[in-house]
Amino acid sequence: MNPIQKGELVFLRVLLAMLPGIVTAVYLPCTLFVYRIVLVCCLSLFVCLWFTIAFYKKYQFYFRRWIPGALVHLLVFFTSIAITLSQSEKLKSSYFANYNSEALVVSVVSEPKLSNDILRFEARVKQGLIHNSFVPQSGLMLIALKITNEGKAYTYGDELLITSNYHEVEPPFNPYEFDYKNFLANRGIHHQAFINESQIRVLKIHQGNSVISYALALRRKMVSKYKEYIHNKEASSIASTLILGYKADLSAEVLSAYSKTGTMHVLSVSGMHVGIVFGVLTWLLGFMNRTKSLRISRALIIISLIVFYALITGFSPSVCRAALMLSIYVLGKAVNRSSNTYNLIATSAVLLLLYNPYFLFDVGCQLSYLAVVGLVYFYPKIYHSFYVRNYIGDKIWSYIALSCAAQLATFPLGLYYFHQFPVYFLISNLFIVLPVVVIMYLGLGFLFIPWQKILEPLGSFLELSIVWMNKGLFFIEHLPFANVLSYNPAFAYYFLIYLIIITTLLAFQTKSKILIYVCLIFCLLFFSYRSSSIILSEKQSGLTFYSLRKNSAIGFFKGRSAVLFSDLDSADKTFSFSVNPSLQARADELKYLSRQEKSNQLVFSEGNFFQFENFKLVIWDKNLNSRLFSKHIKVNAVLLSGRPFVKLKNMLDVLTPEIIIIDGTNPDRAINSWKKEAATLGVKCYVVKKNPAYAVNLN
After folding, report:
1. What integer pLDDT is reported at residue 597 of this predicted model?
2. pTM (predicted TM-score)
3. I need a surface site. Which of 42, 168, 522, 648 has the fewest CB within 10 A?
């Protein structure tokens, strides 16, 4: 193997300087003052670099080659910070949140998605109505529109007039809850609006980019074609997702099955999908390979069609990565130029991050690049470690090596984001490889066949293939020990896993004793961290009053056991989003407590009175009043829940709490009244609605 030269990895070196710059920019205050300082640093470094190059021989900088190298890296670092900060709409004086507008003129910039009776879409603010005049404004917002059965259709490019009824996206209020605020911030969205149809008016239609409008309209037409000939709803939704990246119709059960079996990458249009499209196009245009001009023409046609396919599928970061890498590869092949694979990967990453630095924080983009690096680095080593003579056996072993390589590179990050590891990922990936390839090829052909006599049997075959593929994945999902859960929130925990993997491989490759010792140190740190986490979780004892908008939930935790008292059903979305992550992370054994139960192994309860270890709690609801108490009781906390009609002064005549907690089942007017009364009476009061969950530590 020829050693890799530095000159082959130019873009990789640029990328290594860009990444810390982008990360630094995210944690810097997003102000004009900071932005100007960064620009001054960029200008100063550019002048220093120019001086170094201009007087390279005069001052003999070739004896200090690290100086120009350091200046280039610093310039890239600060330029990355400047580019990232410049992407923020908050820096602009025209940002809509800086004004008190009565109404906003917005343009729909994403394809609206309907869930139940709520239509969600991203919109760009164009103008704000202030004192009967329109003022130019800018910025993105997320709009959630409650529609009726007779609701109008809203599409990409529509220009709308909406009431200025928006608010800042809220951070996660409960332990281990998904950070939706950060997720939207990485998309440039910091505010959202909840409106109904009486607060919106269509001003103009089809005002967006004509190419994007055409691509989205074409995708809708293609999705309708799948629905027409694939009668099973789940099968048609998977065909639309697998081939076109249209995820709106996917059910939670299907998403769960693919996620828990390690086959979620199939439903995220990325390298495999773009590669299949590339293969089809290469085969169709194979005749254009005779002359250099024909090869260049073929390359341009393939690149154009791949970019258009990426556009139809939604231009997600993972699709952009695959399309960009293939485009560079195809162009290089056409002009007989080859490049280092790692540099090719880095080139696509640099170009993507120049376009949008926040792609770095997209989970799909991170996993996509890690998977590609894993395939390039790990696959040859795994594949060549075992020789299979049989042709079919060799193909199976090749795919096993591919799956292992991709999983080895991505599983620590997958654990960090999704908190689960699919134990049977090899079985499930081997099971779906043939059906997915067949469905992709036939599904693509299906879209371009005009004859109904062919479409009907082909649609039935596609439906049957998808249904049987789903049944297989559902079976694997429910096998014993199909998933390993991991809810450790510290990124360092997963970073240590990567360090162990990298140092282990390098130690085997170089046979270096130092690397073996370094690997052992990382292993020691990892197991020490893991052991301390387990010991602390076994010793935990406390309560959590969850922050919910319209419901109530209390978690009682002792060691790895938990009891939940709540009016939420386990199938409720609020439970899954706000409560369940904490229960999964902190408990191995969970029990539900109802009002009818007198006691539990962990919690004693009788009516509205609860005792957990030495903590005494009274839930004051409509069923409770001061006349039911025969004597004054001292408790640790009183929870006001279910809209009780009570004055705190009357309640304090029979109870002496250390704190009064108010949950989300109460109306805002009552909450504000109780807060004022508590302040007057000098009683500690905490509202969990729209505030962080209230935790009580009993250790």
Report:
1. 66
2. 0.86
3. 168
